[in-house]
């Protein structure tokens, strides 16, 4: 009996200790970690309140040392309003004197001010926004009647243009502020927070977080987004795209750096771009569209390694298989030529990639048989959405594959007659770099529910599309392309193996056929080739005064590669 009593006392004591610890942690979070939030909430109670939807979760980059860097957050300041009806009624308030006093301490739009004063039946008109604490103190010191100063919050992007197409921005939809593009839109339900969330019962919050952790529906989770975007890598990619825009005056440019083993997007950018802090100054809204997920292109010869890998995997060819290249073939009454129309004679599969021979890619597809070739292309999920966590993703156009015509199968083998989005292309090509797995491209890694509590969103890849042996063979072939063929082997790195391929595709005319003088250039590569840490993809639409991708994209690719090797201190592999 006595031992049972002692057990109960100990159990009660243990419960009290645990409760005290939990309460202490909660008080620490309220008074130290979240003190700013509660202070602002208190201020909202004695000045004009902010809309409920002003509360919004943060978006964070993750640097290579796993430190979090703010990419989007709520910034707090003040807005200034006048009371036109009060000014009209009170003879002691002179509108001109009021303007002179206010404009002596803060910048006031004169036209807006006097238009607001003229609304004599209106009790409240905003005239200035995003004022600092010092501005607000200066206005209070004037001790003026007929004005109101109120706390306000707005979305702020500390890095300005960096990763603009990834982040998107927050704008008005009706009278509500919502995410309009990028992560802001895709993750709207997660980022949008109820302004009353600070007053939720502690235990209800704990159980809510537990429920969110075990829920399979990530959209039901409310919190901050932790992304895989590495800010320095992102800046480096954007610098290279900007240089390309100056060199070649193209219509558009894009690039992706991804971990081919996990699908984590390390950097994603396109040009032209914008500053999400000042999106309202952009005259052409098409700049907000993210071509990496919202547009499709005929990618050209970077598809040849997929064709070659499929042929190797199916056993239709080996790296030493030869064929007779006459410079062209006739299929379905149509002539298909190499890029220069020249014949190479009796050449190997290695030369098909080295010299980017269209007839060689068609040879591989025909050796496989059209049904097998189409099955492999579909196994890469070309023509399907990847499920990347960005809005408005489009899927590729594979009608050329579906027709079954000989000319369409031959054209598809070297990347013409089929169109796909850049992210769709990168996912397929990543299978060559990771041993044959199809990964899930994604940007958000985790949702932070509260300090110290996060929910992981993605699992490791499970779908195998190629054998490891086939990917090893094609990787060796692509390393040879860089070592011997790309710019005559002058860009190879002696201590690092790099697998890469260029692509030059004619751009289709809306009136049928292809333009003779408009091209899309593409480039992909991964490294170290046999234990790839990164896959890099670049494309440029209609560069001026140049024909081949090797001329426009080789140097930017090598610059990015060298940067990543140095920045991540990747050890040499040869």
Summarize it.
The protein has 574 residues and is of the alpha+beta class.
List the helices and strands and how they pair.
Layout: H1 2-33, H2 35-46, E1 59-62, E2 68-82, H3 84-89, H4 95-103, H5 110-117, E3 125-131, H6 133-142, E4 147-156, H7 164-167, E5 170-173, E6 176-179, H8 182-186, H9 188-191, H10 202-214, E7 224-227, H11 231-248, E8 252-258, E9 265-271, H12 291-294, H13 304-314, E10 322-325, E11 328-331, E12 334-337, E13 345-348, H14 349-354, H15 358-368, H16 370-379, H17 399-403, H18 406-413, H19 422-433, E14 437-438, E15 444-450, E16 453-456, E17 463-464, H20 468-485, E18 499-508, E19 514-527, E20 534-541, H21 549-552, H22 554-567
Parallel strand pairs: 1-7
Antiparallel strand pairs: 1-2, 2-3, 2-4, 5-6, 7-15, 8-9, 8-20, 10-13, 11-12, 14-17, 15-16, 18-19, 19-20
Helix pairs in contact: 11-22, 13-15, 13-16, 13-20, 15-18
Structural class: alpha+beta
Mean pLDDT: 89
CATH architecture designation of one domain: 3-Layer(aba) Sandwich
Q: What percentage of the residues does DSSP assign to strands (E)? A: 15-25%
- N-end to C-end Cα span: 74 Å
CATH topology of one domain: Beta-lactamase
CATH hierarchy class name of one domain: Alpha Beta
| Shape summary | globular
Largest sheet: 7 strands, mixed
Low-confidence stretches: 38-52, 195-214
How many DSSP helices? 22
Alpha-carbon Rg, integer: 30 Å
Helix amount? 25-40%
Number of E-type strands? 20
Q: What is the fourth-level CATH superfamily of one domain?
A: DD-peptidase/beta-lactamase superfamily
If you had to describe this structure to a student in words, what would you say it looks like?
This protein is an alpha+beta fold and 574 residues long. The protein has a domain at 231-444 and 461-567: Beta-lactamase (3-Layer(aba) Sandwich), CATH 3.40.710.10. Helix 11 (231-248) runs antiparallel to helix 22, helix 13 (304-314) runs parallel beside helix 15 (358-368) and helix 13 (304-314) packs across helix 20. It is globular, with a radius of gyration of 30 Å. The termini are far apart. Mean pLDDT is 89; it is low at 38-52 and 195-214.
């Amino acid at each position: 009996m006595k031992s049972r009593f002692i057990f109960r006392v100990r159990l009660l004591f243990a419960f009290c200790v645990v409760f005290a610890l939990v309460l202490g942690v909660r008080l620490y979070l309220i008074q130290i970690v979240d003190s700013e939030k509660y202070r602002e909430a208190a201020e909202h109670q004695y000045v004009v309140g902010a809309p409920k939807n002003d509360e919004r979760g943060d978006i964070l980059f993750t640097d290579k040392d796993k430190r979090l860097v703010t990419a989007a957050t709520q910034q707090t300041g003040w807005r200034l309003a006048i009371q036109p009806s009060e000014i009209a009624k009170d003879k002691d308030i002179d509108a001109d004197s009021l303007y002179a006093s206010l404009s002596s301490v803060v910048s006031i739009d004169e036209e807006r001010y006097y238009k607001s004063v003229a609304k004599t039946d209106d009790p409240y008109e905003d005239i200035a926004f995003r004022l600092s604490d010092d501005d607000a103190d200066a206005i209070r010191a004037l001790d003026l009647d007929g004005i109101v100063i109120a706390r306000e919050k707005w979305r702020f992007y500390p890095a300005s243009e960096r990763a603009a197409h990834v982040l998107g921005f927050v704008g008005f939809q009706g009278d509500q502020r919502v995410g309009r593009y990028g992560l802001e839109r895709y993750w709207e339900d997660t980022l949008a927070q109820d302004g009353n969330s600070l007053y939720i019962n502690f235990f209800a919050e704990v159980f809510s977080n537990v429920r969110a952790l075990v829920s399979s529906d990530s959209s039901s989770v409310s919190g901050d987004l932790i992304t895989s975007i590495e800010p320095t890598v992102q800046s480096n990619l954007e610098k290279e795209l900007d240089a390309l825009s100056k060199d070649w005056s193209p219509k558009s440019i894009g690039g992706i750096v991804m971990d081919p083993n996990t699908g984590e997007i390390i950097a994603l950018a396109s040009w032209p771009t914008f500053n999400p802090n000042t999106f309202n100054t952009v005259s052409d809204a098409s700049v907000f569209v993210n071509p990496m997920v919202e547009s499709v292109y005929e990618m050209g010869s970077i598809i040849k390694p997929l064709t070659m890998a499929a042929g190797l995997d199916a056993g239709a060819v080996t790296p030493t298989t030869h064929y007779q290249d006459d410079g062209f073939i006739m299929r379905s009454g149509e002539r298909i030529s190499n890029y220069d129309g020249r014949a190479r004679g009796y050449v190997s599969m290695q030369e098909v990639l080295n010299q980017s021979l269209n007839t060689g890619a068609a040879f591989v597809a025909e050796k496989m048989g059209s049904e097998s070739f189409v099955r492999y292309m579909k196994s890469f999920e070309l023509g399907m959405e990847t499920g990347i966590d960005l809005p408005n993703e489009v899927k590729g156009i594979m009608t050329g594959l579906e027709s079954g015509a000989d000319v369409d199968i031959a054209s598809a083998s070297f990347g013409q007659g089929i169109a796909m989005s850049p992210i769709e292309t990168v996912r397929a090509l990543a299978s060559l770099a990771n041993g044959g797995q199809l990964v899930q491209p994604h940007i958000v890694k985790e949702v932070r529910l509260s300090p110290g509590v996060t929910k992981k969103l993605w699992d490791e890849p499970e779908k195998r599309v190629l054998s490891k042996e086939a990917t090893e063979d094609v990787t060796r072939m692509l390393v040879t392309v860089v070592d011997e063929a790309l710019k005559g082997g002058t860009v190879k790195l002696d201590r690092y193996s790099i697998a890469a391929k260029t692509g030059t595709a004619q751009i289709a005319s809306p009136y049928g056929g292809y333009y003779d003088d408009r091209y899309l250039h593409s480039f992909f590569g991964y490294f170290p080739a046999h234990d790839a840490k990164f896959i890099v993809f670049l494309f440029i639409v209609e560069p001026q005064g140049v024909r081949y991708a090797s001329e426009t994209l080789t140097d930017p690719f090598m610059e990015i590669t060298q940067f990543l090797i140095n920045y991540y201190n990747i050890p040499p592999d040869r």
